[in-house]
Amino acid sequence: MELDFIFQSSDHIRYERGRHVSGPHGGAKRAVKVEPNISGHEGYSVTIYNMDGNHPLWQNNIQMAPKRMKIIKSDSKKIELQGYGFDSGGTPFSNYGLTVEFEGAEVQMCILHIHDRRIDIEYLK
After folding, report:
1. CA distances for 6 relative to 92, 102, 107, angstroms
2. Coil, strand, or helix at residue 115?
């Protein structure tokens, strides 16, 4: 399956070490963008945007800068991506993963995994 979509999330729920710590927030809108790798490498780029407005310091709505990922597992209802490589500062993209749950061709939910901090953020439809 070729991944190339923008998932508009109405809200999200945050888990730390498997424990629910916040959300839903009553409308914290985000967009999860998955596209063919923007650097020309294998796999995909995953970027998350804050749809509620721009960040006061860097003046854009990027919530998570693009992360290089590739498919590690898929079935008829779910695709799991895992980061690979490093950013320009040497931080490994392997700290990140994304699970995409869908029905047919429609994305139902995306879950961002921040492995090194044991955080999962469920982006809801």
Report:
1. 24, 13, 9
2. helix
Rounded to whole angstroms, the Cα distance separating 94 from 115 reads 8
Q: Is the entire prediction scored with pTM above 0.85?
A: yes
Say what the pLDDT of residue 59 is: 81
Per the structure, the complete domain to which residue 69 belongs is given by 5-124
Work out how many domains the chain is built from and give that number: 1
Q: What are phi and psi of 102, to 5 degrees?
A: -145, 160
Structure tokens at 65: 């800068």
Q: What are phi and psi of 77, to 5 degrees?
A: -125, -5
What residue type is assigned to position 106 of the chain?
A: E
**What residue type is 24 in one-letter code?**
P
Residue-wise pLDDT for 10-60, tens only, equals 999 999 999 999 988 888 999 999 999 888 889 999 999 999 888 777 788
- Read off the pLDDT of residues 75-97 as tens digits, 9 standing for 90 and up: 989 999 999 999 889 999 999 99
**Cα–Cα distance, 93 to 67 (Å, whole number):** 6
